[in-house]
Structure prediction request, 872 residues.
Amino acid sequence: MNIILLSGGSGKRLWPLSNDVRSKQFIQLFKDEEGNYESMVQRVYRQITEVSPEAKVTIATSKSQASAIYHQLGDKVSICVEPCRRDTFPAILLAAAYLHDEAGVPEEEAVAVCPVDPYVENRYYECVEKLGALVRQGAASLTLMGIEPTYPSEKYGYIIPESGGEVSPVKEFKEKPDLKTAEAYIARHALWNAGVFAFQLGYLIEKAHSMVDFTDYRDLYAKYETLTKISFDYAVVEKEPSIQVVRYAGGWKDVGTWNMMAEVMADDIKGKALMDATCENTQIVNELNVPIIAMGCKNMVIAASGDGILVSDKEASSHMKPLVEKVSTDVHFAEKSWGTYTVMDVQPGSMTVKLSMRAGECLSYHSHDYREEVWTVVSGKGRSVVDGMEQILRVGDVVTVAPGCRHMIEAETDLDIIEVQIGETISVADKHKYEL
Amino acid sequence: MNIILLSGGSGKRLWPLSNDVRSKQFIQLFKDEEGNYESMVQRVYRQITEVSPEAKVTIATSKSQASAIYHQLGDKVSICVEPCRRDTFPAILLAAAYLHDEAGVPEEEAVAVCPVDPYVENRYYECVEKLGALVRQGAASLTLMGIEPTYPSEKYGYIIPESGGEVSPVKEFKEKPDLKTAEAYIARHALWNAGVFAFQLGYLIEKAHSMVDFTDYRDLYAKYETLTKISFDYAVVEKEPSIQVVRYAGGWKDVGTWNMMAEVMADDIKGKALMDATCENTQIVNELNVPIIAMGCKNMVIAASGDGILVSDKEASSHMKPLVEKVSTDVHFAEKSWGTYTVMDVQPGSMTVKLSMRAGECLSYHSHDYREEVWTVVSGKGRSVVDGMEQILRVGDVVTVAPGCRHMIEAETDLDIIEVQIGETISVADKHKYEL
Prediction:
């Protein structure tokens, strides 16, 4: 089976660990069976391969996430990059066209679409397998997964099935209800709509051509910006008459807030931190190098990164968005395809960052108009090219790069460099790329 | 009058703002009338000069604090540096010998000794003036200030006076009592002993010679390490038959814990921080460059510095010492005589720091055996000397200093330098000083 994972937009609801370039799905707070930390996207990928070792996974995502996905999953997955953000209908269309036109997937194959961010048991992916099997049987054009509600939530859309059976035709879809309405839905065997659906690739390709004027994947990619922002649910699911739903009654958590994340984190403390004996029901994530001491904290979450520090009552944390929008949106930490980038100091006219490159990785050959850079190698080996001149990099080596100078770095081993950027204007936009 | 301010040891009870080299008296959380932040030591000095413009202030302190005092008060005060820590009796002796033998203060002059860390009103220093006046009248050998208790505290020693009058002979001294005993003391007009006393300089010099074998200040300084660790209270005050006490009934706070500090801080927030509307009775001090967001915090104190982050219930914060002792004691921020020193990154084999020098200040001429240094100037102007070679320093200049190389930096304007230290062993002990 082919699985398209939708790796959605950046979010601030898990600030300071999520930011404009680092989505919540890349924060490593879970653990695999061997006790290694893993992120949502790593966990989802691991679960899929445990349940369906043959599954081919394609991640539909934005440019800004491609580096982090590559950093976390390597080349085990295909990445279908959207040229810009256009909601789930265009994103799924583009991924389907990619499978059809680039990856050569036959039209009769089953494709399942899953979000990348629920915290679930492996049984969830067994249910996705079942969706695939039902698609192959051809009983309906679209086959959905519905989550058995554990309480009458007002936060989710509902699927009303014809019956309470494990597989049932869908009667109708309902928007987020109020409490009473939710209770009435549940009495009618309703299920939460968690955005999981499966179809034959040919079904969607045909649908796509009937709705959008394009020839193939490359053409769709080129005109992607002109597509209407619309969700797959509105554009396709809710209009499809031939549609069935499979009940999933296992564990399922939407870890979109710190309150929920704190429930499922592998450890109460990640990073340097100590809690005294009077702390209760409190979790700490510390990505900084300095320790956190927590005393007498009850029902709190404390999270610290290079971007900032959150100290919040768990309940209150769901309302953090307006506050996060008020604070500086400078990004101080980013996962890049080649490693990590950490801002250590910012002052008018200069910025000091630490580049930690993984062995074998390369920076692109590029230049800046408005800043010079001073690199000091603090660990590892590599080489640099500056205006065509190659130089070996060893610990203690210092390289000065003037404005306009083309430069790149290649890491032979893991390589750490302190980079001092100096200039009146220091901006990520000040970058020209070249072929080497 | 001469005032000796005792600037006591480093402490961890206001961690992470106080550390081994930065005592609580240097943290700037108060404000003067013009709204400028000031530290305990700056506030005390300001209050003394407001009440007694003619007072000559000498600060008795350790080597490690001398730089911070000079940084905060400049040369407005004399600093009497103890060669090592030896409790209050030796410290006061040394300061008295300094006044007598080095500053030429006549023996009949009044000297008052005050701790540097209580949070008080100006009336407190009016009371110190009164102590001086009483000393000049010669009614007793020692004149103490006693603090009118506001509750039967078990934390303080008590002075039992002969009478409840404003000035009274002292009947006896009592150790920290239990609650009931404290209540009984208060019924007898008892006062808290806050370590403020005054005497004629000649009285103490005579006392000193009767108790310690020394010729003058320099001789005492030379044999300081051999002196017994004993408090002035035990060694002198409690044995003196001719002793009186002056009642002080004004504001007095011992800001030794975050709980107390939070009560007297000038602002609920200092530094980059936001609190949501559901926070109550919470104070935040943030010395980091990144913002803190606090939500739903009740009765808490949050403090962040380059050394770490404290998130504590106010009550619980008084018990932080054992936790602080468990976390790394690496110092990441220090006030030096020439400016500030901030550690930005530490990894095996390297450390990156930021030096912020004030205009006109100089680093000593020194070398390191086991590390090289790479300096990048990020703002300001200055000059360096490396192995006798002088070099002008401008923004963007890079200087490499090999192990064994003698070097110094002089700041012409305020000068910021990113210094990358590289070596197997990086230690403050790896330093040789030279004359230039």
Notes: The mean pLDDT of chain B is 93. Chain B touches chain A through 61 residues (CB under 8 Å). The radius of gyration of chain B is 24 Å.
